[in-house]
Amino acid sequence: MLRSINRSNSLNNKLLKRLSFPTRTVTSRNTSTLIYVEGNKLGESNLNNLLKAGNKLNNLLRKNNDQSSAKDSISLLIVGPDSLNISQRVKENKLYNTFVKDVIVNQTEYPETLSEEISPVIKELLKNDNKIDNFVINNTTVGNDILSRVGGLIEIEPMSNILSIGETDNVTNFKRYTYSSKILKTIKNNQNKLLLSIRSSAFSDEPLDINQTKSIENAEQDIIVKDISKDDIVAKSKDDRINILFDKSKVLEGENSIDVTNAKIVVSGGRGLQKQENFDSLLEPLCKELKAGLGSTRAAVDNGYCDNSLQIGQTGKTVAPELYIAIGISGAIQHLAGMKDSKTVVSINNDPEAPINKNADYILEQDLFTAVPELTSKLAEKSL
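That's the Probable electron transfer flavoprotein subunit alpha sequence above. Prediction below.
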């Protein structure tokens, strides 16, 4: 069971002191976490965020369950046609070699992961005989789909969009926003396994505790790479009652685009672009010049300007780039919930009363049909 408190920051400490929560009952064992990495979206900042979250989770669970002698371990699960090559890149990285015990690869035909296929594989990996206690994944549409399916398969309730992991009275807790990011929720979890998705860049400033990793005894050991593509684990996970048919042209579409959840710069368009032709002709060249990820609002999706996979917001993706450029976006609270952690926000909008301007660091009050082509042109000249 999960127990949670909806609270404002001012009441948090008082509430936590008044209420007692069941602690997680864990027998003496290692604290181990499996981190899922989409093979075609291995961004360094993204992987660092997941590693730091997994590292902190292991450390706090060992401490709060009085397992000072237990050993931590982090395993990566990389899925995709290029997963074996990516595992070698991880293995050659000195930082990753310090924290990662092994890399499990599942070579698939398609770069985009189907949750229906990978979830049963993860279920097999999380069985008790594999000695993996926790599962961590990115807070994306695909990530949360996998998370919920895995939770159903192993009968564990997952926690999504986690932005911090901490402790109160020697009990590990987890924090996430709710009600369009108006309220911060603190969750205490006493389940035998923990399943959670991590908010983009939430742990980017978190230090890595080298003293509590495999570096104590195993720093000189190379990361072990395990290819389970033709292993019994994959074979056991298959359900003969389900036959999934692929449309390869659709699956591979847009494979070279920059994933907004990993991008350092995100360009996002809203209703002000008026139609799909404007969305494509104005935003895509700008993204190309900036090497930026492309996003949108719910209004742009609903009006048919772009695919819903681009949507940023409460019911879309959560991003936290270094630079977020909002073009023709009014700033509904649902959209703000998905980009509120952006380091710098630029609004291009000829409406001085647009709500997003209150959240912007820089505002360009100009018609976007003039401003965006001019900006793209200047960037192109600079790159020559």
